[in-house]
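> example.struct
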């Protein structure tokens, strides 16, 4: 669990640092609730269609959501940054210049597909599009979680915004 957390902080300093120093600070930089623009996909243009076509292999049944919640609050360590209720206000969020996603905001599910979220779980949000600075959101699926567990936890995250 701490391996992921420490790796994330390392990534923030090494990967997030340079892009932030280039004057690309988001409008919400350093402010409570200061998420960077949700309308900008984190997936590079060339990979966007494939990412959007990527669908969860199962639906958000109560069992799947319960497993996703357990990962979110447990070995996935998502709560450290995204907060115990997924509001983006975890203890570690205080040191992050770009705030973690608030999954209780229903607007997020409208602009983001599950496949785009899976792309971020596999690749991180490290500024690949050039439109958003690199963030502390590091690759998790393939490193710390299986793809199946990744789908479970992201379906749980989407359920917090009352949409699938
Ligand atoms: C070290 C802190 C940290 C941890 C731990 C973390 N996240 Fe994140 N996460 C972030 C930040 C910061 C963002 C905002 C990135 C952005 O705006 O580009 C984010 C954004 C996201 C997004 C949205 C990306 C998008 O398309 O806008 C998803 C999905 C996500 N996280 C899932 C997870 C899951 C699932 C876990 C646990 C397995 C997790 N995160 C753990 C910091 C973290």
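> example.seq
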């Amino acid at each position: 669990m701490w391996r992921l957390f420490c790796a994330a902080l390392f990534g923030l300093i090494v990967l997030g640092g340079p892009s932030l120093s280039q004057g690309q600070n988001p409008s919400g930089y350093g402010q409570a609730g200061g998420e960077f623009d949700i309308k900008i996909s984190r997936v590079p243009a060339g990979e966007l269609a494939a990412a959007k076509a990527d669908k969860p292999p199962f639906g958000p049944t109560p069992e799947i959501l319960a497993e996703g919640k357990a990962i979110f609050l447990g070995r996935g360590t998502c709560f450290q940054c995204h907060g115990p209720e997924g509001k983006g206000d975890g203890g570690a969020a205080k040191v992050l210049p770009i705030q973690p996603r608030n999954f209780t905001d229903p607007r997020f599910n409208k602009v983001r597909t599950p496949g785009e979220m899976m792309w971020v779980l596999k690749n991180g949000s490290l500024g690949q599009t050039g439109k958003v600075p690199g963030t502390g959101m590091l690759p998790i699926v393939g490193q710390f979680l299986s793809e199946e567990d990744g789908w479970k936890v992201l379906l749980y995250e989407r359920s917090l915004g009352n949409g699938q």
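> remarks
The chain has one domain: 2-159.
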